[in-house]
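cron nightly-structures :: item 1 of 1
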Amino acid sequence: MKLGLGTGSTARHVLQVIAERRERGELQKIMGVPTSRATEELARELRIPTGTLEQHPRLDLGIDGADEVDPELNLIKGLGGALLWEKIVASACDRFVVVVDDSKLVQTLGSKSPLPVEVVPFGWSTHVEFIRSLGAEPALRVRDGMPFVTDGGHYIIDCTFHNGITQPREIEAALRSRAGVVETGLFIGMAEKVVVSGGDGVAVMEAGQ
């Protein structure tokens, strides 16, 4: 099986479980395509075989976390800074499954988390007023006093929608129409299942339910 390996704290747990099962002699015929350099490094440490999308353009299954999940299984992702590579890998998967804890469940996307928007560094500030016109407050993501740079060499603008994102498809289309916007953290209609861990155990949400 060819797997898309997600990025973030939840994805790290998934990789650790895969590694434990491989140590027991299971899952010997799997290969993972990482969604970030951090995930690639962890997979190598855990002795999980990895490859690239150039070598394997179609994947059987993608497993990743999310920052928010709405009742229709639409997602916000990207607080970990890997949204572009995560979306590319998810799009290459025949099945895409998300694993979260119940604190990530929301009625309306943007209720708890900002929407990350990945942009090329050149002219990034030209998007600020446009994002405000969509009803959000933009903020360039900064680390250690410098703009955060993704694995793809881009900046991220975190967009806070104080009233939530009531029309995610329209917001996605508007942002993607901008020259210089590379990708958004809106994952619309991509997740087949969401596995949710909570105080009452584990539940599975499925698309169309």
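cron nightly-structures :: done
The chain has two domains: 2-103+188-198, 115-180.
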